[in-house]
Amino acid sequence: TKHVIKNILWTTAKNFTVERGREQIEELISTWDIHESWLHHSEFLEEEELKDSKRYHYRACWGIPTRRKPIPQATASVYFVIVISKLKPDTAPVEVFYRLESSRLIRRPEQCPFREKWLKDIIENKTACTERL
């Protein structure tokens, strides 16, 4: 099946704040095709100063609470980086990347549709690992 990539209009460098970044990540997540049983929270982790850019790191932590287990046995995290270039004008939009906790592959929201299966795979792998222990 063909996935439609939904993207959002990212804020400009000059209008960026840490909280605005978190709000925009939430806005992006709201475009993802994920079952309503998945719940998440997002948080700002750190600011990183580089020669050519500033990077803002965030995490969204996912789980499926149930009546029997309101605290999920395992969670899956998605890490986001918002990059503000020091070389581009401050009217340019920020750049956004994300990766899954189990992967080193870095994705761009406008190029790769998010798949719920990725979250399921992380949780299944953690559960299987815990059961082996």
UniProtKB/TrEMBL annotation:
Record's GO cellular component terms: cAMP-dependent protein kinase complex
Molecular function as annotated in GO: protein kinase A regulatory subunit binding
Coiled coil spans: none
Entry-linked PANTHER family: A-KINASE ANCHOR PROTEIN 14 (PTHR35075:SF1)
Name the record gives this protein: AKA14 protein
Species of provenance: Dryoscopus gambensis
Gene that encodes the chain: Akap14
